[in-house]
Design goal:
The structure is a single chain. The longest helix is centred in the middle third of the chain and has 37 residues. The radius of gyration is 26 Å and the shape is globular. It is of the alpha+beta class and 485 residues long. The strands form four sheets. It has a six-stranded mixed β-sheet, with no helix packed on it. A four-stranded mixed β-sheet has the order 5-8-9-12. It binds flavin-adenine dinucleotide.
């Protein structure tokens, strides 16, 4: 298995073409906006190597390959049992709790590889292809070489109401433009690819179920990230600005916590036959999409559990620093967060313990349970973010920066007035406030302003306690029930 220096060295040697903010950038992974997610991918290598960084994560990050028998990174596993799925859930949760950032370049491969494993197995049984054997060799190679493989799914899609062959531009979904004896040529793009530039290889597959007229779009293959005709344009989000404008300490988990994604372009890219895993077989695309979405929903729901764990930690710390840790409404909110995260855990565990067992022998999460988990998680994350803001208070948004604090005139005053309860340093309170702001995921003015300004909800609720005519209602109920006053 590689260590993080070897992982980085491979990226250096590949010299993939990556644009950031309109410019091609050579050592792109060191760019301020790219570095946090790169650090987290590097950490997956370091943790797999050594238990010292985090014993729990070391244990979860490695396992024995059921293909080669060798030790591999868990992200590259083909799942054979419920326990494999549960291990995957625990890994996603613990890694998010460690870094609070996106490790999509590692995690999405698992979803796609497991789905392709099952679908190519079934396809080869029809007797016309040898995709499964090719795919097996590919998975064994990336396991042995310990590569980061980005699975690229989402197409630009143009008019969403139309299938690929009816789009005004035929490239809106990635497609085969030429078939040769030794391979195919593909053209198109994949959008919103989390962590794609950090990968050594790309594993491409269709984003939706295809019909008979979409055979040219029914294609799955792998190419190295530096293949001729492949290039990346990193996405642009307002959150990037802070990584270029602010000191890292002002960001909150700045070392790791930035989601980074890219558009990946394939301009007439040649794919040799041995790297093709689907080439026109539109009839299996529905099963393929169903399977990879089930797997990916396990991954993303599990990830958010780690996020809720962290929100609980940051909220509890802020409450402590503010001197309100023992207040009932705060304790209730923390318990609500715990109920949310353990409910997600129960649903994912249910999905893992009642799995779909494919003919190939690999397993996938139970579809209904995992979709329930994903939907429940969506709500839980937003509610948790709001609770984190409520508990933390306005300081999440309004804290002074480290450069203000360093100024000899205003620094001492800012420190004096940002003191929380006695015994807590101002710096700790400010650091935790910034982490809580980042974690709330809503680190812009409107959400925090809406929840906290003009009083936090717990204060608003007091009005109802004082002004509701509870007595009138009790009297009315008693009268109707025939109970004398
Ligand atoms: C931060 C982030 C990271 C991501 N990472 C990855 C990744 O690593 N790899 C990857 O492959 N993808 C990734 N995605 C893509 C993600 O899977 C898509 O965003 C998602 O599938 C929705 O597609 P879209 O954004 O194009 O939305 P749209 O298709 O534009 O959908 C917008 C709205 O229109 C509705 N809609 C669209 N089409 C129809 C239709 N035919 N009928 C009815 N309603 C419709 C949708 O339900 C939705 O409400 C990522 C996305 C984000 C935001």
């Amino acid at each position: 298995m590689l260590n993080s220096e070897q992982y980085e060295q491979l990226l250096k040697e590949m010299k993939s073409t990556v644009y950031i903010d309109g410019e091609q950038v050579p050592n792109y992974w060191l760019h301020p906006r790219m570095k946090p997610a790169f650090n987290l991918i590097k950490a997956t290598y370091d943790m797999a190597q050594s238990p010292d960084l985090d014993g729990e994560l070391h244990e979860l990050m490695t396992m024995k390959s059921n293909i080669t028998g060798e030790k591999i990174n868990t992200f590259l596993n083909i799942h054979r049992s419920s326990n494999d799925l549960v291990k995957r859930m625990k890994l996603q949760r613990a890694l998010m709790r460690f870094g609070a950032g996106c490790f999509g370049a590692r995690c999405i491969f698992g979803a796609v590889a497991n789905a392709l494993w099952a679908v190519t197995y079934n396809l080869d049984k029809e007797g016309r292809t040898d995709y499964h054997e090719r795919f097996k060799k590919f998975v064994a190679r990336v396991q042995m070489q310990d590569l980061v493989v980005m699975a690229d799914i989402t197409d630009p899609k143009g008019d969403r109401s139309k299938p690929p062959h009816q789009q005004s531009d035929p490239d809106f979904y990635l497609r085969i433009v030429e078939k040769r004896p030794d391979g195919i040529v593909v053209n198109g793009a994949k959008f919103q690819q989390s962590g794609a530039p950090y990968a050594h290889e790309l594993l491409v597959l269709p984003t939706t179920a295809m019909g008979p007229d979409d055979a040219d779009y029914s294609v799955a293959f792998t190419v190295p990230s530096n293949a001729e005709g492949v290039f990346f344009v990193t996405d642009s989000t307002a959150s990037h600005a802070k990584f270029e404008a602010m000191p890292l300490e002002d960001i909150g988990a700045g070392e790791y916590s930035m989601h980074e994604s890219a558009h990946v372009f394939f301009e007439n890219v040649f794919v040799p036959n041995e790297q093709i895993f689907l080439c026109g077989e539109w009839h299996v695309t529905r099963d393929l999409v169903q399977l990879f979405t089930d797997h990916q929903r396990l991954a993303s729901s599990s990830c958010r559990m780690g996020y809720i764990d962290l929100c609980m930690g940051a909220s509890q710390s802020m409450a402590d620093y503010n001197g309100v840790a023992k207040v009932n409404h705060i304790k209730d909110k923390l318990i609500d967060m715990s109920i949310s995260v353990e409910s997600i855990c129960a649903m994912i565990t249910g999905a893992a313990m009642t799995p779909q067992i494919t003919k190939s022998g690999c397993v996938a999460p139970n579809t209904m349970c995992i979709n329930a988990a994903k939907l429940y998680m969506n709500d839980a994350v937003l509610k948790t973010a709001q609770k984190t803001m409520e508990i933390g208070g306005g300081i999440l948004l309004t804290r002074p920066g480290t450069r203000d604090l360093a100024n000899p005139k205003i620094g001492p005053l800012l420190r004096k007035y940002h003191q929380g309860r006695d015994g807590v340093t101002v710096d700790d309170r400010l650091k935790m406030a910034r982490l809580a702001e980042t974690l709330s995921g809503l680190a812009c003015v409107t959400p925090i302003l809406s929840v906290i300004a003009a009083a936090p909800p717990a204060v608003n609720r007091l009005q109802f306690r004082f002004q509701t005519d509870f007595e009138r209602n009790v009297k009315a109920a008693k009268r109707l029930a025939g109970i004398a006053e």
